[in-house]
């Protein structure tokens, strides 16, 4: 029956319609899910076959079960054959030049390569943008990624990026096995969210029912007279899995009665069907098929023949349809089930010798694939080679930044019962080292917890593994509640190993986490320093010094800069410089909080350089994120929202290091009156559980939330938020962190009938920051005193305090905070009857508007209207005619259009822009007319 043809698609009419509909209506993201052999690939191929020939580019990429650390390989595989569809290089987005090194086949069709970026995270994001731009250039296109369940984390991140912001002409189709993903998990990861302007569908494929099995078997056999008993028996034996139906039918003898299925000896699984097919092959073809099965991945002719086949046998296997040709001159099985069936049928001694030949062939390559070498060495029973290649593969992957592959390799070795017990400890500790410098931590946490439950670890290794687990939980995972006890327990177990215990105590000494007072963190820091003084360990000394410098800077200590100057940034040891990189990234974050922006930039440059030198991904990304906050504070708002969102897209496993992004997005939303967005972002920045989050950012988020409640007139909520946040600040005792909280909290308390509490807070804050080197805290104290004086109707004092705050913020610079303080000063002067106050409000409205703080600008204009001053809005910058030619929107209309596009009601728009509802109704009508749309739902945010 080897001549049985492949039938047309059977039993998938509705799924096929859905897939074709999505492919022809881009942008679209389609996930085709189902178990192995269910027909995912056939459905996709059938849909592609229904598309008009040449109508769109069809790009095919494949994920493999064994993968070497080549980031984004499946996507680059799909892009290699598109040269003929590309425009001239000068018509391409210049960013696509970043792909020259990845796609040498297209180098002549791409623009020049841009200069390399020092930061690997920035380089990665540029590559993502370049791929998206290249896909946009060849649109309309269908990008198909097969077997997404085997994708590496980098490929998932890239696909999530493309799916989140697909080019207008792209349909992204991915096939995957649901059972390999875990219940309820998206194959694109938890961070993936459907976009409202993109077609998003999931096409689940279930096993065929009896009727569909009858149609499939009938098409395969070209028979329409199959008995119901035969079909029922076939359905029972195959469970309706199309691939198994096909393989069994292909193995049938001439008779087609139900007993024929038993006589052929083919059970449900594929191995018997494949055994029958193999039995009809000549010996040379069997050797080639078995060699391909041993290799597991599609391989070239030379490798297959080296493992056990011949060129002639390979040709026979291809002609018989047992093996298939894949892209790039590689040969393998049509389906992983077929490969496994053949592999299982190979006798044990033959399998072992075949793996030995695979090791010998792979070792001789110019760039040996270490992951494959480790696999074949294990199957050959060569434990020493398995450990050597496996460890090298993990280290290579980690060095390339592919922490996920490194963890997978170690995971496979630790899960193997044949791994010698003495080798388990070092591998377990290697996991912690990988996580300490990478961004992928979830699997590391699971593995470390698993190995800690086993009894093969020595006491010392167990304690060190527990310390690694605690540090990863506290840092990368952001779960201090779980990480802190692990570190404490590890420190107790490491009492006889002061060097490791010192590292644990030093990690606990960082005051940004937990509710312990500053004094406790100082105590832990002193313990670490006492222990490290007794050890001759430069890396450990650097780690503890890094934490001491970070501690001093975060609390605004007068000696912080002196300690920072002693960091060993020029040490010849990579491990020592990696600790210095971590320190400089922390110093950048703390200096940003304190208002030392020139110093923060210096720390950032040095931290970025050292992180790139030493491969420290985690601190480098932390630096990127805190830079977003510095740019917000210093008034560099142009494009900041998009930069923050783009950076957040790359953080799939790291809730800790993205809180700055949510804080900035919350502040930006607050400045434009986007209340719901601001609340959501402030919650993400730490207000969902402030005592378990990064305290400095959580306190700043609380300050933003208080401002939001005050803007909406929710005074009771503002007071409650102020009380909760100031209690946390008081408990920690690091008062310089209150710079973005205390002025707002004082306003809420004072206007909420708690002027006495407000006055106490001002006095307490003044004592708390006394002697600290923290420009922002000093300016915030003047702003808080101004708020208290304004509430108490001491307008002369209020004007003086706000003026002092304005000047201090201007010097730093913090232009938005300076403008807010200037507004407080102007209000006080207006209350005093100062004739210059209206001009000050007009200037502030213009300044707020230039920054993009439309809500603040509208508030100042409202004051001018209330006192009878005519308000002239500035002409919009870059305004351009809309599609109906009715003319560009005015500045006010643009503000209204933005809020309409966000789904705000007229009443909500009136509250944000300090206008009457009737005025808003008039503006909305004008916006609809000028944009040439009939409904509010058709309005898009103005560019």
TrEMBL record:
A GO molecular-function descriptor: ATP binding
CDD domains: LuxR_C_like
SMART domains attached to this UniProt entry: HTH_LUXR (SM00421)
Keywords attached to this entry: ATP-binding, Nucleotide-binding
Protein's UniProt name: ATP-binding protein
Bilayer-crossing regions: none
PROSITE patterns: HTH_LUXR_2
Sequence ranges assigned to domain HTH luxR-type in this UniProt record: 882-943
InterPro entries per UniProt: AAA_16 (IPR041664), P-loop_NTPase (IPR027417), Sig_transdc_resp-reg_C-effctor (IPR016032), Tscrpt_reg_LuxR_C (IPR000792), WH-like_DNA-bd_sf (IPR036388)
């Amino acid at each position: 029956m080897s001549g049985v043809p492949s039938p047309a698609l059977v039993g998938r009419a509705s799924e096929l319609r859905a897939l074709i509909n999505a492919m022809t209506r881009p942008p679209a993201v389609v996930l085709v899910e189902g178990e192995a052999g269910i027909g995912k690939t056939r459905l996709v191929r059938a849909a592609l076959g229904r598309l008009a020939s040449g109508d769109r580019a069809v790009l095919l990429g494949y994920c493999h079960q064994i993968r070497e650390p080549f980031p984004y390989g499946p996507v680059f595989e799909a892009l290699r054959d598109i040269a003929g569809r590309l425009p001239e290089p000068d018509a391409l987005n210049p960013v696509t030049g970043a792909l020259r090194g990845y796609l040498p086949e297209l180098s002549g069709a791409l623009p020049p390569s841009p200069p390399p970026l020092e930061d690997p995270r920035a380089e990665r994001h540029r590559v993502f943008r370049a791929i998206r731009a290249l896909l946009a250039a060849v649109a309309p296109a269908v990008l198909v990624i097969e077997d997404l369940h085997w994708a590496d984390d980098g490929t998932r991140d890239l696909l999530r990026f493309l799916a989140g912001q697909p080019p207008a002409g792209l349909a992204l189709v991915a096939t995957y096995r649901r059972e390999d993903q875990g219940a309820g998990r998206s194959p694109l990861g938890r961070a993936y969210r459907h976009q409202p302007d993109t077609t998003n569908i999931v096409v689940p494929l279930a096993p065929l029912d009896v009727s569909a099995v009858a149609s499939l078997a009938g098409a395969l056999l070209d028979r329409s007279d199959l008995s119901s008993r035969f079909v029922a028996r076939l359905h029972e034996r195959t469970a309706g899995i199309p691939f198994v139906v096909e393989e069994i039918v292909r193995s049938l003898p001439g008779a087609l009665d139900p007993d024929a299925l038993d006589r052929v000896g083919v059970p449900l699984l594929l191995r018997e069907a494949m055994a029958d097919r193999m039995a009809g092959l000549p010996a040379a073809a069997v050797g080639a098929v078995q060699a391909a099965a041993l290799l597991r991945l599609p391989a070239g002719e030379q490798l297959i023949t080296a493992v056990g086949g011949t060129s002639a046998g390979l040709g026979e296997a291809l002609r018989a349809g047992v093996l298939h040709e894949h892209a790039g001159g590689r040969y393998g099985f049509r389906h992983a089930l077929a490969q496994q069936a053949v592999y299982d049928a190979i006798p044990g001694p033959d399998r072992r010798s075949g793996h030995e030949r695979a090791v010998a062939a792979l070792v001789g390559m110019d760039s040996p694939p270490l992951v494959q070498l480790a696999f074949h060495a294990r199957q050959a029973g060569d434990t020493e080679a398995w450990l050597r290649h496996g460890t090298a593969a993990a280290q290579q992957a980690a060095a390339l930044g592919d922490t996920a592959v490194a963890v997978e390799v170690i995971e496979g070795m630790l899960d193997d019962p044949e791994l010698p017990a003495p080798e388990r400890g070092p591998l377990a500790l290697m996991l912690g080292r990988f996580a300490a410098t990478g961004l992928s931590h979830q699997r590391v946490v699971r593995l470390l917890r698993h190995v800690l439950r086993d009894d093969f670890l020595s006491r010392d290794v167990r304690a060190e593994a527990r310390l690694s687990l605690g540090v990863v939980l506290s840092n990368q995972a952001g779960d201090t509640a779980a990480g802190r006890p692990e570190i404490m327990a590890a420190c107790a177990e490491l009492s006889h190993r002061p060097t490791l215990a010192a590292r644990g105590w030093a990690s606990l000494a960082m005051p940004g986490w937990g509710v312990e007072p500053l004094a406790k963190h100082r105590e832990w820091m002193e313990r670490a320093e006492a222990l490290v003084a007794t050890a001759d360990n430069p890396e450990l000394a650097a780690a503890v010094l890094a934490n001491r410098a970070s501690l001093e800077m975060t609390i605004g200590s007068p000696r912080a800069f002196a300690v920072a100057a002693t960091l060993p940034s020029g040490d010849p040891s990579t491990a020592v410089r990696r600790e210095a990189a971590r320190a400089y990234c922390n110093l950048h974050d703390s200096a940003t909080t304190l208002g030392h922006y020139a110093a923060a930039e210096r720390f950032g440059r040095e931290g970025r350089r050292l992180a790139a030198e030493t491969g420290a991904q985690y601190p480098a990304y932390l630096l990127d994120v805190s830079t977003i906050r510095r740019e917000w504070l210093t008034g560099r708002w142009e494009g900041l929202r998009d930069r923050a969102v783009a950076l957040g897209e790359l953080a799939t496993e790291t809730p800790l290091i993205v809180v700055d992004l949510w804080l900035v997005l919350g502040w930006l939303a607050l400045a434009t009156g986007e209340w719901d967005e601001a609340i959501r972002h402030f919650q993400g920045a730490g207000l969902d559980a402030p005592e378990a989050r990064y305290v400095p950012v959580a306190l700043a988020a609380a300050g933003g939330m208080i401002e939001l409640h005050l803007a909406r007139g929710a005074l009771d909520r503002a007071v409650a938020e102020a009380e909760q946040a100031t209690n946390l600040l008081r408990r920690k005792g690091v008062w310089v962190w209150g710079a973005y909280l205390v002025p707002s909290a004082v306003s809420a308390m004072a206007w909420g009938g708690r002027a006495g509490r407000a006055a106490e807070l001002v006095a307490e804050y003044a004592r708390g920051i006394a002697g600290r080197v923290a420009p922002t805290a000093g300016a915030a104290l003047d702003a808080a005193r101004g708020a208290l004086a304004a509430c108490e109707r001491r307008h002369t004092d209020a004007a003086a305090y706000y003026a002092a705050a304005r000047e201090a913020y201007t010097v730093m610079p913090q232009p938005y905070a300076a403008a807010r303080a200037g507004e407080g000063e102007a209000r006080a002067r207006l209350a005093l009857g100062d004739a210059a106050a209206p001009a000050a409000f007009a200037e502030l409205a213009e300044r707020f508007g230039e920054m993009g703080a439309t809500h603040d600008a509208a508030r100042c204009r409202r004051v001018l209207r209330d006192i009878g001053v005519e308000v002239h809005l500035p002409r919009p910058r870059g305004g351009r005619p809309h599609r109906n030619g009715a003319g560009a929107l005015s500045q006010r209309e643009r503000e209204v259009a933005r809020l309409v596009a966000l789904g705000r009601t007229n009443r909500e728009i009136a509250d944000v822009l300090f206008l009457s509802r009737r005025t808003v109704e008039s503006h909305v009508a004008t916006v609809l007319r000028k944009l040439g749309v009939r409904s509010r739902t058709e309005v898009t945010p103005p560019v």
